[in-house]
Write a structure and sequence with these properties.
- This protein is an alpha/beta fold and 279 residues long.
- It has 11 helices and 11 strands.
- The strands form 3 sheets. Strands 1, 2, 3, 10 and 11 form a 5-stranded parallel β-sheet that branches. A 4-stranded mixed β-sheet has the order 4-5-7-6, covered by helices on one side.
- β6 and β7 form a beta hairpin.
Length: 279
Amino acid sequence: MINALSIDFEDWYQASFVNIPSKEWVNCRPAIIEATDLILDFLAIHAIKATFFVSGYIAQRHADLIKTIHRAGHEIESHGFWHQLAYKQTLEQFTEDISMSSTVIYEIVGEKPIGYRSPSWSTTHIPDQAAKILLENDFIYDSSLFPAKNFFYGKNNFKTDIHYYKDTNLLEVPPSTLSLAGLRIPVTGGFYLRFYPIPVMRKLIELVNTSKPVQLYFHPWEVLNSYPKRSMPLTQRFIQYYRCGSMLVILNELSKRCQFGSLRQAYPEINQAIINRHN
């Protein structure tokens, strides 16, 4: 079974908990160039094609990186432009943010993104409005609705399997969870991938794989530990920085027993949705 591997392609200074205003980003030392080199080497060694959900701001600032990723055969999709929480924008701002991201990506690689992931899963709070706007902007699928509740995002009543969102033709590809003792356990990426011991994560993936693929994700700054750290509340600091620098080691161990690929490789429903939309 092919499991999906995706990268939320943003730099450290864009992360929600870091909380640096976008007007100050230009003064921040980027870590994404070094991180991308490591990520692309890792993917090439393991013959993995991945899906990159790209921040439009990063694409505009580092267009050559996006071209390199695209030439390597990876999927380029949208992570919005400014990496702003969707529910803290007006619907007009949210629409403009998505449109700007699509335009920048098209100008760089010559293809419009068909997939979208909201920063910090923030469209969890406005799913109906987001789906309408994504469809109006010709997106085929979304991967933003986190089907497990925590203090920052997610809802326990979201569907856990790939599905068409409500009565629309927008395909929803949620991050993975596993139901245990009445609880939904995230089996996905980011902090969860850094937090779980590798044998535990391997077993969780094995359990999910009895019926469907797992979707793992990570951020470029998670493969490094050398970028500037910010002061923040203890809980947020733990989530943001715990075991940063270990991500590729973790993925290397998991790849010894698991096969990974892009979202379109792991979920043939996406390719079928593309065909359906164009018929």
